[in-house]
Each structure stands twice: as C-alpha cells, then as structure tokens.
Write a structure and sequence with these properties.
- The protein has 264 residues and is an alpha/beta fold.
- Among the domains are: 34-145, Rossmann fold, CATH 3.40.50.1390; 193-260, no CATH class.
- Helices cover 50% and strands 15% of the residues.
- It is built from 10 helices and 6 strands; from the N terminus they run E-E-E-H-H-E-H-E-H-H-E-H-H-H-H-H.
- The strands form 2 sheets. The chain has a 4-stranded parallel beta sheet, with helices on both faces. A two-stranded antiparallel ribbon has the order 1-2.
- A hairpin with a 4-residue loop joins strand 1 and strand 2 (13-19).
- Helix 5 (116-123) packs antiparallel against helix 6 and helix 8 crosses helix 9.
C-alpha cells in the first residue's frame, strides 16, 4: 500500500512517496467482546412445558446477537405472570449480569414486566438491559413503553373479569379440574406466596399498629382498624383474633427490608 506525502521545506514543495507494507497474516487484532445474559419469560406452565413463546424469544435473541463480537454468557427462563413482581429467575439473571459485567437482553420489553414501578426499579439496579424489539430505546422511551404495557395488562384483566362474570350469569360453571394435579412443589410455592403477601400487608399496617402502643389489646386494635375503615386482606372487618395474629406477625417482621423490596 503506497501513500504520497507533500512537504514544503524552505521554499519549493517537495513531493515524495513512501511505501508501507502490511502483512495481514501477521497482524492480530483482539476484538472487544460484548457479554449478554438472556432472560425469557412465559406466563403459564403449559407454555413453559410446550416451548410455546420460548422458541420465538430465543430466535429473536439469537438474531439480535448474531454479531461475532456478542457473547451469550447465559440464559434464564421464568414462568410467571407479567404483572407479578417476585421473579427469582430475574434476580439470578441480574446477579449473573453483575458477575460477568454483562447486559441483560430480552426479546420484547413486555417480557420483562408490565409495571412502570418494576421497570423503574430495574433501571436503578445498575444493570443495563436491552430489548430486541426496540434496541434504540432510551430511558424515556422504556418508561413510556412500560406504561403502555401496564395499561394493556390492566385492560386485558378487566376484559377477562367481565367475560367471566357474563359467563357466570349465563349459568356456566367456572373453575374445576384443569387436567393437572398440584405437586408438593406447587403447594409449597403457593404457601410461600401467601405468606409473603401476608407479610407485605402486615408491613403496611406496622406504623399504624406501632402508633397504638405495645400495650394495646387485640380488641382495641381491631376496634381502631374498623373505625379507620381498614379491612383485612379479604375485605372483611377485623376481629380480636385476627388483630392478635396481625400483631404477632408484625413483631416478627423486618418491615424496612420488606417495604424497600416490595417491587421485587
């Protein structure tokens, strides 16, 4: 490869040519590697077993990472509703991102969450993430898309509830056997979810109960909550027994941790 160079030394212009030879075989350029952790989510166990939805998400991620500089360091699959905030596999994926100094990649933004608060907390977690369906998205557009997805989820829920109510009015029998018997793992997961929801509810009420003083009786607590219009988790009035259980649960809670991690 030859290049010409012009120089002007004390008057007349001198033009000369120098020859630079490059031997490609002897030049080794180390290309930087971009690491990614993939996160896939499906809403039902049936989708998870059949692969419906997962295959399309994997194909989208593979197309997005087709550049040789991109390295898929790991992947995590979640079977959970988009409106739920407790995502154990997502927590593992975020931990892997921090460990490998990688970015989180998802096929579509709504696979991550349909909650503005959830996405906001994720953006503050220090892990960068990218959606294959909108790679140009910035922080503002991600918030907007999350808000749209949250509204869409709410509308779907309202339409489903209206349809079920109409079917019940027509005399249709809802619920029943779904072709699968719950396993011990399913039951344990259900118990864990109910216990956590009860803890979060108790954490919300902890400041009110503590303000009444530790010497307040369960009857006084129940009466006060009913006067304030605060109902139980099932929307009923408080009884002294329920108030006593609430006080015992609050005494065992780390309320600061629960409230700070409520979205997770």
């Amino acid at each position: 490869m030859a290049r010409a160079l012009d120089l002007e030394l004390f008057g007349p212009r001198i033009r000369f040519t120098f020859l630079a030879t490059f031997v490609a075989s002897n030049v080794k350029v180390k290309m930087p590697i971009d690491r990614f952790i993939a996160y896939y989510r499906v809403s039902t166990v049936r989708q998870g077993r059949s692969g419906l939805g997962l295959e399309a998400q994997r194909e989208a991620v593979c197309r997005y990472l087709r550049d040789p500089q991109n390295l898929l360091a790991g992947s995590y699959v979640e079977v959970e509703s988009g409106t739920r905030a407790d995502r154990p596999q997502l927590r593992l994926a975020l931990a892997a991102c921090r460990l490998h100094r990688a970015r989180l990649v998802i096929a579509k933004l709504d696979r991550l969450a349909r909650s503005v608060a959830f996405v906001s907390n994720l953006m503050e977690s220090g892990v960068e993430f990218q959606a294959c369906d909108f790679p140009q998205a910035n922080r503002l557009t991600i918030h907007i898309l999350a808000a749209v997805a949250e509204h869409e989820a709410k509308m779907i829920s309202e339409r489903t509830q209206a349809a079920l109510a109409a079917a019940k009015t027509r005399g249709a029998v809802l619920g029943g056997f779904r072709g699968r018997i719950a396993t011990d793992s399913d039951r344990e997961k259900g118990r864990s979810t109910r216990s956590r929801n009860a803890d979060l509810f108790a954490a919300d009420l902890a400041p009110t109960i503590n303000a009444m003083g530790f010497s307040a009786s369960s009857s006084a607590v129940a009466c006060k909550l009913n006067e304030m219009g605060v109902t139980t988790r099932r929307g009923l009035k408080w009884s002294p027994t329920q108030a006593q259980r609430l006080m015992v649960r609050i005494a065992k809670l780390d309320t600061n941790y629960l409230l700070q991690n409520k979205q997770w």
